[in-house]
Amino acid sequence: MKYHQINSALFVKNRRKFTAEMKPNSVAVFNSNDIYPISADSTLPFAQHRDIFYLSGVDQEESVLLLFPDAPYEHQREILFLRETNDHIAVWEGEKLTKERAFQVSGIRTVYWLQDFHKILNEMMTYADTMYINTNEHYRATVETETREARFIKWWKERYPAHNVAKSNPILQRIRSVKESEEIDLIQQACDITEKGFRRLLSFVKPNVTEYEIEAELAHEFIRNRSKGFAYTPIIASGNNANVLHYIENNQQCKDGDLILLDVAAEYANYSSDMTRTIPVSGRFSERQKAVYKAVLNVKNEATKMLTPGTLWKQYHVEVGKIMTSELLGLGLLDKADVQNEDPEWPAYKKYFMHGTSHHMGLDTHDYGLLHEPMKANMVFTVEPGIYIPNEKFGIRLEDNVVVQEKGVPFNLMRNIPVEVDEIETLMNE
User: Is 161 left (phi over 0), alpha (psi -120 to 50) or beta?
Assistant: First the structure.
């Protein structure tokens, strides 16, 4: 890992929150992700399953966490299973976690090698009535690959059909959505690395630079600051490419007079940041570009103020839509007839702003959080309105990451990243 070790006290707290919600006499098991094959002996870089990381801090393949708060013996209440390390593995793959190192990372004292898992699980099942299985129930999830977690669930159901089944995900959706202070600090660090990358770009971007050269500059800055790289596939969309919401080819030349929509951000210690900025290739916005930009910025600022405890996500988006409608009327993109005759299921503003304004973020860029429940303090959200005008061959989106506060305006984790027109133009022309 590139990041500094996280204090194990965070993971101790996270486990306590989870086990406090478990039914009596129940076991929960969490598996690491697989290393996914590409072809021949090639694989994708390993990325840890966020749930086992959240509960243990273990950032290593072939790891299993077992939680059994009502186990008859104290040493059985939290157990880690790890791939056994040896000198051969150390030479060929690098050192893996030892039992002592695993305790330092996780705060879990009982650590076994993975080959003992089935034997110990069998003993735990003789004591337990219920098993918590960890299914992916995120509202955006589309999973076509069988995961290590899915294989375990299939095997467990066949092996222990008499036990009750419960789901870990509803508990995780709630507790992961409200961040501990240590987590907010880690997200802040990811945002700070993103800031360094963005500032680097402002002096780099000139007419005729390519989108992939910009991507390379960002990757350089992120990695040199202890990030693994991008928190998600970067969008570097110049000109009309900005009107493709998930444009990821990043292979075009940036032309004088165009804007570049940059939806790019760094991760740090598996925690995401999520930034969007839109900048002029030439270093100066045209008057029309500036007017649209300021409209988007106003929507972002006004939407941010609404992210307060008790706010309902669905109603929040209705209110943001009203602000966006007013801005689009001012820009001449909508007229009163468009609004009067709009379809309530697809309001007129959706022609130019067709996506949501905010989503939870944290360990996942689109993080856990139950959208039908009111917002709470220490939830972290994006705020990302946009206006997309294919006929004018540009689109503008601006995005910050904010922490809901118990009282007052949300705290902007991207407060130091340039966003005002004058500041961006000044920095690009220094």
Answer: alpha
Q: At what angle do helices 287-305 and 313-330 cross, to 10 degrees?
A: 150
Cα 200 from Cα 203, distance rounded (Å): 6
Phi, psi of 46 (to 5 degrees): -70, 135
Q: What are 36's two structure tokens?
A: 């996914």
Instruction: Indicate the residue type of 293.
Output: Y
**231, 197 contact by CB (below 8 A):** no
Does residue 26 contact residue 70 with C-beta atoms inside 8 Å? yes
Buried b (16+ CB within 10 A) or exposed e, 293-328: bbbbbbbbbbbbebbbeebebeebeeebbebbbbbb
* CB proximity list for 248: less than 8 A, separation 6 or greater: 233, 234, 235
Tokens (6 digits) for 278: 């839109």
Report CA 77 to chain centroid distance, whole Å.
30
Reported pTM: 0.96
pLDDT in tens, the chain (430 residues): 899 999 999 999 999 999 999 999 999 999 999 999 999 999 999 999 999 999 999 999 999 999 999 999 999 999 999 998 777 776 677 778 999 999 999 999 999 999 999 999 999 999 999 999 999 999 889 888 999 999 999 999 999 999 999 999 999 999 999 999 999 999 999 999 999 999 999 999 999 999 999 999 999 999 999 999 999 999 999 999 999 999 999 999 999 999 999 999 999 999 999 999 999 999 999 999 999 999 999 999 999 999 999 999 999 999 999 999 999 999 999 999 999 999 999 999 999 999 999 999 999 999 999 999 999 999 999 999 999 999 999 999 999 999 999 998 999 999 999 999 999 999 999 9
